[in-house]
Amino acid sequence: MTLQPQPRTRTALVIGGGIAGATAALALRRAGIEATVYEAYDSTADGIGGGLTLAPNGLNALDAIGTADLVRDIGSPMTAIVLHSWNGKQLAEFGTPPGVAPMQFVWRTELYRALYAEAVANGVGIVHGKRLVRAEQDGEGVTAHFADGSSAGADLLVGADGIHSTVRSIIDPAAPQPRYAGLVSFGAQVRDSGLASTEGRTLMSFGKRAFFGWWTTEPEGTGRDGARRDGSDRDGTAVWFANLPRTEPMTAAEAHAVGAEEWLRVLTTAFADDRSPALDLLRRTDPADLLITGPMESMPEVPVWHRGRMVLLGDSAHAASSSSGQGASLAIESAVQLARCLRDLPQHQALTAYEQLRRPRVERIIKAAARTNSNKTPGPVGRVVRDAVMPLAMKLVKPEKMAWQYEYRINWSEPVPAPSTAATGARTGSAAPASHSA
Ligand SMILES: Cc1cc2nc3c(=O)[nH]c(=O)nc-3n(C[C@H](O)[C@H](O)[C@H](O)COP(=O)(O)OP(=O)(O)OC[C@H]3O[C@@H](n4cnc5c(N)ncnc54)[C@H](O)[C@@H]3O)c2cc1C
């Protein structure tokens, strides 16, 4: 009997037009695969979501597909993180490890705009108002069904639909769901903040009752050529974020229902005893500008990443808490690696190779971030212990030890070898039944 040659992937449906989805569509096009993005929301994410930091490894991954300059054009370099105790005492300063490029702060809106423009310029179709509700697959292909009654078909379906992924539950109905991480997050931009320049550093304070971070945006950070993108002068503009411990779980909708003015009052009380610019920045924050990011969530290990013609990507597979500063960068890395694997291997092997390449790395980073979250939610006793132990512990943390996170590089032109069969076992979804549980 002759074995049928395994099919290559020619077309892909990318569900979700966030960072993972937009990057995946671009990378798939570079790999010669026709990709269309289906996004639930009616419009792009303009104006939504504040800012985020892209780590050097995320930029390296964008470099692999020739798009990192998009980010450098709109980013501001972040050279160090400085940690303080509630009383203003500096606990530690982490610079970028030697030989590693600095992180880049970007506004989400600007990042989406840049990625979408690049994707469209490269022939990617982006369709809005398409919320995936179910999918079915057979030997010929996979069909996505949307809430508006329409459907679309392709060789592969990529679930880039975020931490509350629908695709994850379709692939594995027993898949774990996100867990509330005990913190509610907020942020804002304050023009004319009166703060001295933080010189490219992010300052953070483990406050008595909540965690606060702030920095000033630098005019020279607004583009590689120093040009200001929108003509606005960002001198003196500060950005802050806060993580407020809260035992009772809360949905994003419930957090919004509380209202900006009430949250500003709650935060003012929470930071009342701290020596940081928190109170001043809260006072200068217009309630209309308060970004209620909502509950911070952590995602337990996702046991099944792919089944048949469906695969997970980005937060749907590996949501690192925002404390890691790595969620977007890991999503970008995974998008590029998935495209390489699909370029070089038949689909079934490609999805297995993708998981083998990605799972150990993302899970190591997620574990490290979970430890950071626990430092942000100590009780009164834990706080005293933390403040006593942390300066010593921080002395032992060498930036070089973090280099493994940041130095990761993908060689786009290097062919991906067929996956090893020994390690694929129970965790690879292609072999796993739909009911596989954690
Ligand atoms: C407060 C906060 C701060 C953060 N800060 C950082 C940071 O500084 N650095 C960093 O690297 N990461 C940060 N992150 C994490 C980072 O934002 C995520 O890891 C990253 O955005 C993941 O991208 P994604 O495309 O996988 O998911 P998402 O960005 O969530 O995108 C998923 C997309 O899928 C769409 N969608 C959902 N369901 C469906 C459906 N059924 N059908 C069609 N479309 C659907 C959604 O509308 C959305 O557009 C932060 C996260 C938070 C919450």
Automatic annotation (TrEMBL):
Keyword Cytoplasm: no
Region (Disordered): 419-438
The species this protein was found in: Streptacidiphilus alkalitolerans
Ranges where the FAD-binding domain occurs: 12-172, 305-368
Single Gene Ontology MF annotation: monooxygenase activity
Domain of life assignment: Bacteria
Membrane-crossing residue ranges in chain numbering: none
Protein name as it appears in the record: FAD-dependent monooxygenase
Taxonomy of the source species: Bacteria, Bacillati, Actinomycetota, Actinomycetes, Kitasatosporales
Keywords recorded for this protein, A-Z: Monooxygenase, Oxidoreductase
